[in-house]
Amino acid sequence: MSLTRRFLLTLAGVSTAALLTGPALADQASDAARTAKAAEMVDTAQFKKDGPLKVGVSAGYLANSWVVFALQHIHWEASKHSEIENVVVTDAGFNPAKQVSDIEDLMRQDIDLLIYWPVDDASVEDVLKRAVDAGIPTVQAGGGFTDSEGTVANAYISQYKLGEMVARQLMKDIDGKGKIVAMLPIAGTTAAVEQLEALEAVLEDYPDVELLSVEYGDWNRGKAKQITENLLQRFPTITGVYSPAGQMSLGMVEAFDEAGRLSEVTFSPGDEYNGWLKWVAEHQQGGAVTFPTRAGQVALQVGLDILDGTSVPRGTAVESEYIAPSDIEALVSPQAPDDWWASSLPEEFLPQQ
Known about the structure:
The protein is α/β, with parallel strands linked by helices. It has three domains: 3-39, no CATH class; 45-157 and 292-319, Response regulator (Rossmann fold, 3-Layer(aba) Sandwich), CATH 3.40.50; 159-289, Rossmann fold. It is built from twelve helices and 14 strands. The chain has helices spanning 3-10, 16-19, 23-39, 65-78, 96-108, 121-133, 159-173, 190-203, 221-234, 246-258, 274-283, 295-307, and strands at 41-42, 53-59, 84-91, 113-117, 138-141, 153-156, 178-184, 209-216, 240-242, 266-267, 288-289, 312-313, 315-317, 322-323. It has a six-stranded parallel sheet with strand order 3-2-4-5-6-13, with helices on both faces. The protein has a four-stranded parallel sheet with strand order 8-7-9-10, sandwiched between helices. A two-stranded antiparallel ribbon has the order 1-12. The longest helix is centred in the N-terminal third of the chain and has 17 residues, at 23-39.
């Protein structure tokens, strides 16, 4: 019997039958399986390579400010390693077909390592496998844990654990009763799937909370606002909002405010999006569950270990933490634009405002 299977069957003393009963337990079992899979060690001897090194970065989209900050973390880490000769970056502009083409182009440029953020996990799976077969290790940066032949390792943020933290804080803030809506990122992505799994699992403990609608705002403030305007027309009562992404939360805030209904709703924690942090500081509501931009830096560190021939975990977790509204001031940059992120980047590597 595999380690993963034994882990699932003995998780917290829960029986096999219990694990297979009900959506909440099924989701918890899925998260446990992902955690166990992430802990598996990968033999990287086949990828060992001396410098100089060329690093390829395939961004599914650079219009998103989180990705821009994560990319700067890559550049910062690269500056510490003299063996890195070049970092080549491509932007697929939310186009899955273009991202496949981008990765093929990076392969033709003889990169030694590929770090990527997908538009869609499934669309790049084949081209990533081709890269691995060609001797180019691949590291997924900042999304949820990805288990596929084309992904050698992950510097991942557990979307399930993040989503669970966000959901439980929202339940606490609405006293475990009311009607809520959910705003998730791009439909079908690991982030959207696992955040919804986490919400549904938490809601099993709160029978007095009704989930009115699940929407997908693509990490886009404007789109989230437009969707929320429609939700406000459909539902005369909305008690709470589950929205782990601060930029979408802020778009929703604008829609509630313009409809004169902001006072009726409680928002969940968002992330370190500066516009959201400013709003939390002013209204002392929601707080933040961090979505660390340093995941890009961790991805490069993992990639360099792979190129050194050092065994690495299949997934290196970049942990989230809850920051209460009363402590949010430490993260806010009052003079910076909304489209900014709290980060540990030194000044010379911060994006241009």
